[in-house]
Amino acid sequence: MKMLKITQEEADSMFVSLSQKYRIIAPVEKIGEGRFSNTSLLTYDEVKSFGEIEFFKKTYFSPKEILNPIRQSLFEFKRKDIREICELIPPSIVFLRACDINAIHVTDAHFLNNEKFKDIYYKRRRDRVKLFLMECKEPFESCFCVSMGANKTEDYSGFVRKVDDGYEIKVTDSELENAFSEGTPKDVEPAFVEKDKNPITIPGDIEPSLFENDIWKEYSKRCNACGRCNTSCPTCTCFTIQDIFSENSNNAGERRRIWSSCQVKNFAILAGNHDFRIPKGDRMRYKVLHKIRDFRKITGFNMCVGCGRCDDVCPEYISMFKCIEKINKITAKKKNDG
Ligand code: SF4
Ligand code: SF4
Fold first, then answer.
1. Ligand 1 center to residue 157 CA distance, Å?
2. Atom 6, ligand 1: residue with shortest CA distance
3. How remote is the CA of residue 159 from the centroid of ligand 1, in Å?
4. What is the arrangement of strands in the sheet containing 252-259, beginning at the earlier edge strand?
5. How far is the CA of 235 from the centre of ligand 1 (A)?
6. Residue located nearest, by CA, to atom 4 of ligand 2
7. Cα radius of gyration (the chain)
8. Mutate to test the pocket of ligand 2, among 224, 231, 324 (most ligand atoms within 8 A of CB)
9. 233 Cα: distance to centroid of ligand 1 (angstroms)
10. Which ligand has an atom closest to residue 288 CA?
11. Enclosing H/E stretch for 43
12. Distance from first CA to last CA of the chain, Å, rounded?
């Protein structure tokens, strides 16, 4: 393990040394590229220096695309022959916060620890990614990571803190120590947010009778089924499969998986055209209960990490946080009523 304080100049030369072997992906602010005029886009992208990294603002998009690309080719087929597409990403370092590292544990549970099947496409990417922790000095407005138990982590290869005159760095991965050969030794430990701005209790026992509650009807009226809450969520992993045929042949093509969203029309459609979640409120119920109840029943931990991104991006101001509050009230009332 190495703990260091480095100057901006030393950081620049370390970045060069790191980037010889690793692609470095981190939060960035793209000025003027936001959804509305004169706004910025806070997103993930490859960076070419520590100076490009946005350490202090929360990104609208999560880092999940690095492990789960929006569109991924799985294999090519020609008549009955199948040729797997082995798409390897370069070894990568990703800068992310504790909630997003915990979100990766959720996606690991989906793709790597799901009974005996491991998703090889996810695993190939996951094996080539190292995680660098960034800390949150204060909780952001819509975050509730402490309430979700996702505010802390020890699972990182490195930790970087930006300070006025350089960076403080802790490297725990021996493979990376050589790249951090300059600087002054200094004890460096990440600090974690200990209290949410708006704490919330996650109901431990949500009865199936909640499925029929009228609260879901409100979402049928308000939600426009855009799916933005899913695409910004670091733990949403649903995808659909498409076979794309070659323009020149009906017998050849490739199979792809493409992000999907449980909030959009036809997500739950089955053979025979049977759709068992037509009202948008039913889709909201599915999403919320999967995040705070159903996944936990299988894995022992919640799927939602309380990053608040779904609340930040919803154009209809629908809030996961407020929905959990409503569920809390209903659950508490039911207990009191006996
Ligand atoms: S459901 Fe919302 S708050 Fe929870 S992890 Fe997903 S985006 Fe973050
Ligand atoms: S972002 Fe809001 S409006 Fe869009 S699908 Fe999600 S809850 Fe509905």
1. 24
2. 233
3. 23
4. 81-84, 71-78, 252-259, 239-245
5. 7
6. 226
7. 22
8. 224
9. 5
10. 1
11. strand 41-46
12. 55
Closest approach atom of ligand 2 to CA 264: 5
pTM of the model: 0.94
Q: From first to last of its 338 residues, what are the pLDDT tens digits of the chain?
A: 999 999 999 999 999 999 999 999 999 999 999 888 889 999 999 999 999 999 999 999 999 999 999 999 999 988 778 888 877 899 999 999 999 999 999 999 999 988 788 999 999 999 999 999 999 989 999 999 999 999 999 999 999 999 999 999 999 999 999 888 889 999 999 999 999 999 999 988 888 889 999 999 999 999 999 999 999 999 999 999 999 998 888 889 999 999 999 999 999 999 999 998 999 999 999 999 999 999 999 999 999 999 999 999 999 999 999 999 999 999 888 777 76
Among the bound ligands, the one closest to the CA of 304? 1
* Ligand 1 pocket, Cβ-based, cut-off 6 angstroms: 232-235, 291, 304-310, 320
Query: What's the rounded Cα separation, in Å, for the pair 130 and 90?
Result: 11
d(CA 20, CA 111): 30
CA of 152 to the centre of ligand 2 (A): 28
Q: Considering only CA atoms, which of 198, 214, 326, 303 is closest in space to residue 318?
A: 326
Domain ranges of the chain: 2-73+83-185
Could you tell me the distance, in angstroms and rounded to a whole number, from the CA of residue 225 to the centre of ligand 2? Answer: 5
Q: What are phi and psi of 160, to 5 degrees?
A: -130, 130
> How many Å apart are CA 127 and CA 104, to the nearest integer?
12
**Residue 274: how many CA atoms within 13 Å on its side-chain side?**
4
